[in-house]
Amino acid sequence: MIEQKKCVIDGMSFTIQQFPARTCLKLEKRTIAILAPILNMLDNENKKSTKKVLDAEVNFPKMAKAIQEILTSLDDISFDSYISDMMKNVFVIENGQPVELTMERFDHLFVGKSIVVYKLLVEIMRVNCFAFFELMGGGWSKITNTLGNQTN
Fold it and tell me: Where are the domains of the chain?
């Protein structure tokens, strides 16, 4: 059954509705493809230890290189499409009422607040039970701790 969850991120209130199962799996697949260079870098850093991938010590120069690879490999149209698709079931709470988060509203709402966008994306993944963080051994607590545990 499709559920909704309310959350507050850095003082902004949202309602997130789960995606239907196939839509969720497609978005999870796209997310994994986007994050693959970072996950690969973490896995390579971790090969000499018994730690799980998300417990790996972070080599920031290599992390920056992996992020650069992601940003240069993802064209603007694909990135816009990904963000739009991920935000389709998100409503922002304005004056106590849920309002659809259209891309026009998105552009105005998140000016100077890109960290909120990233935290919201993680919350969307969590609400939709994206499994790859669990499969990588860290679970959602590792991810939310990395982001400052600002979602609730």
Answer: 4-146
